[in-house]
Specification:
Blueprint lengths: L1 H9 L4 H115 L2 H17 L1 H9 L4
Helix pairs in contact: 3-4
C-alpha cells in the first residue's frame, strides 16, 4: 500500500486508474491468499504424510524389534539345547571311562586271584606228589647245575636256595 501511495505522488493517477489499481491489488491479494491457503494445505498434507511415514517406520521398527527378540529367543533355545547335548556327551564319555577303568580293575583283580590260586594249587600238588627226599634230590641237582650255569645260580641265590 505504501508503494501505491509513493507511486501516486510521483505519477498522478486518475480516479478510475486508481480504482483499477486498487482492484488489481485486491485481486493480487486474493490470489495470494488463495495461493497461501493452498500452500498451507499442501504443507499440512506433506506434514500428515511425513507423520504417517514416521508412524509406518516406527511400526516397522517395532516389528523388526519383535523379530530380533524372536531370533534372540531362538538362539537362547539353541544354546540351551547345545548345552544339554554337551552335558549328555560328557556323561556318556565319563560313563565309558568308568566302564574301561572297571574292566581293567576287574582284569587285574582276576589275574591276581588266578595267579594266587594257581600257586596254591601248584604247591599243594607238589606237596602231594613230591616227597621230601625227592625234593632234596631235585634241589641238589639244581645246585650242581648252578655250578656251570650262572643264570640258574643267580636265580637260586635270589630265592635263597644256594
Amino acid at each position: 500500500m505504501v508503494l501505491i501511495i509513493a507511486t501516486s505522488l510521483v505519477f498522478p493517477l486518475s480516479p478510475s486508474e486508481e480504482r483499477q489499481l486498487l482492484k488489481d491489488v485486491a485481486e493480487i491479494k486474493a490470489t495470494l491468499r488463495t495461493f497461501m491457503e493452498q500452500v498451507d494445505k499442501r504443507f499440512e498434507q506433506v506434514d500428515r504424510r511425513i507423520s504417517e511415514l514416521r508412524e509406518d517406520m516406527n511400526e516397522r521398527f517395532r516389528q523388526m524389534d519383535k523379530r530380533f527378540e524372536q531370533v534372540d529367543k531362538r538362539f537362547e533355545q539353541v544354546n540351551r539345547e547345545l548345552d544339554r547335548l554337551v552335558n549328555i556327551m560328557v556323561g556318556v564319555f565319563a560313563g565309558q571311562i568308568a566302564l574301561v577303568v572297571a574292566v581293567i580293575g576287574f582284569a587285574w583283580w582276576d589275574r591276581r586271584t588266578i595267579i594266587r590260586k594257581a600257586k596254591e594249587e601248584t604247591f599243594e600238588e607238589m606237596e602231594r606228589e613230591i616227597r621230601p627226599e625227592k625234593f632234596k634230590k631235585l634241589l641238589n641237582a639244581l645246585r650242581e647245575r648252578a655250578n656251570t650255569d650262572k643264570e640258574l645260580a643267580k636265580i637260586l641265590k635270589q630265592f635263597g636256595l644256594l
